[in-house]
Amino acid sequence: MYNNKKHLKDKMKLLFGANTLNVILSSLFFMIGFTKKEEKLLKDNAEFRYRYKGKRCFILGNGPSVRTMDLSLLEKEVVFTVNQFSKTEMYKKIKPNFHIWADERFYDIDAENDCDNEILSDMKAAKLTDLTPIVFYKTSAKNMIEKYGLKDLLNIHYYSDKLTFDDKYKKNPDMCKLIPWFPTVVQYAVFFAIYMGFSEIYLLGCECTGILNYIKERDKKSSDLQYAYSYELNEKEQQNFRKAAVTWNSANVFKSHYNVLLYYELLRY
What we know:
This protein is α/β, with parallel strands linked by helices. The chain folds into two domains: 22-207, no CATH class; 210-253, no CATH class. The protein contains eleven helices and six strands. It has helices at 4-16, 18-33, 36-42, 89-94, 114-124, 142-147, 150-153, 185-196, 210-218, 235-247, 250-267, and strands at residues 56-60, 79-82, 98-100, 134-138, 155-159, 200-204. Strands 5-4-3-2-1-6 form a six-stranded parallel beta sheet. α5 links the parallel β3 and β4 (134-138). α1 packs across α2 and α9 packs across α10. The longest helix has 18 residues, at 250-267. It is globular and about 45 Å long.
């Protein structure tokens, strides 16, 4: 059966080249997808532009190496943490300045589900008794945030990731506008840190060992499933890994992690 849309896309690839076509489509998506509501949500991020110009920061991933570090040394540093790091005792000791939630699976919460309630508790744990870090969510989390009262509890700022990031991306980071999608939450933190003006950005616990979970599960050796993280996975998270191990083939898994490393290279420039 003849596919007009596919034929048109193939013609455009021949005319512009695949990379240029991606840039054109991203620009069109920008014009269509950047709504007035999003613009209003993102404008408050202007306060972070170059706020820390010339300073240094530390970005903590959730890799297992974090367990071996003396993180008390970071107590007086500017620190970014990500995702469920807020559930750890280390989070309370570090008292991070910024916390980022990026995986949209975390936004799909059912209050009747015990595992989802645990994730909701982890989100609420971002607020400390003597400090309220700035917490970043995607705009797609807004309904969930309002439904469960997070807006009144946390100091929330939004971001929207509808652009494509590749070697053609030449825009200066601007958190008041649409930003690129990244395959790992740490890369959002790097992007935000650049926007904030940090001249030294140190990554800790960012070894991308999640791929080991997929390999172990495909080998049916899931007893070690949790060792690639600095915190324990709940049952729903383990189920997500098992589902991915079944639905993703090895090529997809390795391609995904190749993209993670590629994006780090692109962020350097």
